[in-house]
Each structure stands twice: as structure tokens, then as C-alpha cells.
Amino acid sequence: MQSKESGSAANAEAIGTSIWNVLPHLNGGASAAAGSEAVAAVAGSRRQSPPESNTGGKMTRALVVGLDWLSFGGASARRGEVLAVAEGYWGEPELLERGGNFYQRQHRWACGAVLFFSDGREDCLLVCSGSVVEALPPEDQLRLLRQMHGLGFHCTRVDCKADDFARVVPLELVHAAAEAGNFVHFRRTEARRPSKFVGGAMELLGDSRLFGRRGGDGSGAFVRVYDKLLESKGEIDCIRWEVEFCSDRARLIGRMLADCDDVAALEKTIGELIGGHIDFRERGDERHVDRRVRLAWWATFLEELGCARIALVRVKSSLQSGATSFARQYRKTLAQIRVVCERTGVDFFWHLRELVLQSCSELDPRKIDARDVTLNLTEAFNLSRGPRSFVPPRM
Questions:
Q1: Is 243 helix (H, G, I), strand (E, B) or coil?
Q2: CA distances from 230 to 133, 189, 212, 235, 240 (A)
Q3: Contact, 59 vs 51, CB < 8 A?
Q4: What is the mean pLDDT of residues 139-166?
Q5: What is the pTM of this model?
Q6: How many helices (H) and strands (E) would you count in the chain?
Q7: Does residue 58 have a pLDDT over 60?
Q8: What share of the chain is helix, strand, coil (3-state, %, to 5)?
């Protein structure tokens, strides 16, 4: 089995806790997959630079890679510097007294870029949606990444895309592989095909295949493969491969992209990240993933796309991390239970206290780590304000 190394030593050092595990371009064998001959016939086309804009008519280039979403988080004390950077691309924004994304206020540009912030809050968030990022030439995308990281900001979300205008891999092959379980790196997959009746006949509005979960509920990588012609209502004729990175993966990948030497290196890295975060192999009886036979159509497509995967180094979670996860996952459930208790006259906090005391008697003292003495519940539960009075929701 052959492998190649992606990224320079400087890049690897920059992302610190990440490890580049570069998967092979081709497996030694090839499985019999429907449509592989058609794939091989068009595989000779090479990746070209993305255009300045992906709007305003159909496009015909074979395989175009690029960025589709960028969000940056950082210190609110540097908000003025972020505004200066953003104004260099989009002009002067409008200050709005309404917020979003759990912030109270925002600076909004006509193009759709938004800088969220709150008075007294230490962080702020710059969100550049897909249309905003696509309107920037790739040179400006790379420059924006470098400027924001230079201000001490980090990526909270990065979307990478590869548009297959030649439809080298028909979406039917992806659906078939997913239904057969011939994919790795994810446990969850879902097909979405919304439709409606038009003129007495059913019209397909979209066709997509999803792998993984979005946001904090997932692994930090979420893959979408969909028919862009349907999604764009006839404007862009391609199959789009898109990977949404968030959380720690977004932070590491954003740093890696910002460290690219030029646009060619940026495009190469984007393509490899897409190809490395989903893999299609025969399920079979082989438990070792790397020994499974890669599907022929995917092996051929990887010759164009490249293949590299970031693996996060996992460390034992501290109690602080556990408390943060607990608050994020169960706070709404606890709130619902309390509302019901208030309506039925049940003492919610007595029951909660008894549950905790019972659990204390079952706790193994060896499970308590030395780091746990630094537990900060105010930070873990994100309690930025003091105690709140109970206000039951309206029915």
C-alpha cells in the first residue's frame, strides 16, 4: 500500500495537537462498481482554479475546489481591527441593535457578512457565509485567513467544496454505496430528496446524501454530496462535494489553510481535505478499514481530488470538559422537567438533590482526577450573569 505525505513540517508544527494521517490514493485492488468505465473515461481532466464567482449562469469546468463558508472567533477587544480588515473587502457596515448566534448586536455588510458582538462580552464572531466567500477571489480568501489569524482569531467553521462539473461520480453511485454501508469515517448517513406536485406530477426539488452530524453533536466533520443544479434552480450544473468543519477541526484546518504559501497550495489542501474525510470501501468481513478494498469509482476520483485527513489527538477529558458537555446536552431537558414539576407541585430540586446524593454513594474515588480541583461551574455552565428568577414559559 502506497502513501504520501501532505503538508509541510512548518504546517504540522503550527497546528500543534493535530496529526496528518494521509490515506493512499489508490488501493492495490479494484472492486467491480457500476459506472467505473465511465469514470475512467473522464478522469484525465485536471483540477482548475476556482472562478471569481459561482453565480450568474452555468459553469462547465471539470473539477473546481474552493471555500464555501468561513467563521472566525476571537477577542472582542480587537473588534476595531476586525472591522478595518472587513471594510477593506466589503466597505462600511451597518450597526444593528439586534443580534444573533447568542450575541446582542451586530455589524452587517450589504454582501451578507456579519460581525456579532455583545457589550461586556469578551469575544466576538465574524461570519462569512457561502455567498460572501464565493464572491471573494481565491487570493483574497487566503489573505483574509492570514489577516484574521494574525489578529489572534481562529476559525470556528470552515466549509470546503469540490464542484464536479463533468459529473465524474454520479450521485446514484454515492447513494448506492451509502445504502450498502460501503463507507468509513462516519456512522450516520441520510438521503434527502424533497419534492412537490407540479402540474399533477412529482417534481424533485433536491437530491443529496449526508454523512455524519452537524455541529457539536458530531465529530467536527460533516459531509454533504448533492446535485447543485437542483439546489441552485438550474444555475450551476455540477455535483458538489462539501465538508463542513467545526469546533477543534475547524480551528486546526483554518490554521493549516492560512499557512498555505499560495493559491495553488490552498486549492491542493482543500481538495485533499475533502477526499480524506470520507472514504468508500467494500464493507465485507475485514475489520481493519485500511485493508478493505476501495470502490473503483472513488479510487479514480481521488486521483483528481487528493486525499488527506486530520486526526485529533484525544486526551482524557477533565471534569471541566464533562461539566461543559453536560450543560450543553441536558440543560433543556432539565428545564422541561422543572416546568412540569412546577405545574404538578413536585419539588424538582429535592428530587435532583436526592439523585445526586444517591450517585455519590456509588462513586469510585479513583475516578476523581487531580485536575478536577480547578472546576469552574460558572464557566462550564456559561453563566455570564447572576442568579435568575424562574419565569415559566407561556402555554
A1: strand
A2: 21, 20, 22, 9, 11
A3: yes
A4: 96
A5: 0.67
A6: 13, 14
A7: no
A8: 40, 20, 40
